[in-house]
Amino acid sequence: MKKYKVLLTESISPVGIGLLQEKAQVVTAPSPAEGDLLPLIGDADALLVRSSPVTAGLLEAGKKLKVVGRHGIGLDNIDLRSATRLGIPVVHTPGANTNAVAEHALWAMMHCARNFNKAEKAFRRGEFCRAGSLPGLVQKMGYTTMELKGKVLGLVGMGRIARRLSEIAGRCLEMRVKAYDPLVPEEVFASAGVERCRTLDAALSGADFVSLHVPYTKETHHLIGERELSLMKPTGYLINTSRGGIVDEEALYMALRDGRLAGAALDVFETEPPAADIPLFGLDNVLLTPHMAAMTDLALVNMAADVASGILDVLEGRRPQYLANPEVWGSSRIL
Length: 335
What we know:
Blueprint: E1 4-8, H1 14-21, E2 24-28, H2 34-41, E3 46-49, H3 56-61, E4 67-70, H4 80-85, E5 90-91, H5 98-113, H6 116-124, H7 134-140, E6 152-156, H8 160-172, E7 176-180, H9 186-192, E8 195-197, H10 200-204, E9 209-212, H11 226-231, E10 237-240, H12 249-257, E11 263-266, E12 286-288, H13 297-315
Parallel strand pairs: 1-2, 1-3, 3-4, 4-5, 6-7, 6-9, 7-8, 9-10, 10-11, 11-12
């Protein structure tokens, strides 16, 4: 019989499951709902979660729980304070989906810049089925687009994903990149060739595109609201692949509806899944995707392998590479 039991809230890539099964019994819950997890967590040594909530009650019910593994970067769905209080290490995968999310942010910028939402829908409706050349009709009907070369990209946050995006946008597409992040040392900006902004306002002002790359915390809740949106160019675009609560969706809706902002691309929402009737769904100048920026073939394998390795490291007494609450290392739970 295998020594450990690992409880999965949802299935992950077979690569990660295979790594875990070499050392542990792997059990996948019927659903990520707490009611389905509680009967199974009592004798689990590890809990592996994607984006569903991990509450204090669930952690306390895991009497043998030695580690929680987060399949992804963000930790806002995990009660980290309670995990730390209980001496439970939390591991995550901050490097696994860096390129995937950066590529998604770049694609979203290109989508907005090239008017795809409006032009593609008009094309399908038959609005181009008239006399004249297609290029001429594009210009006549107001569907001309913009190039990214020479445009200004403002980054909010300068972590792994933002740095990868700055590399692609700045070095490959010749955009001017500036960024705001008070927690990152000067040398990070210098090595990336990114202009450092000392305030959030400076990163927003004058940017053709603003891309958000910060975690969701009390401090970043509605970081981008009515005042911040008013600082952006009316021809600017907001890109959010980070977390939904960072943007005040009502303020964004009003700015987009009233033409005070040209467009936006959102992969994340304040409530997930969002309701089917949120006002943003009624706008044609916003690109909406279902939290899929990290859902690439390679990123899914990377996240599964990294979280499995982190869990096994803790279970076997090795300090994991990505430990979200290092103060618990050496607690009685993992000795």
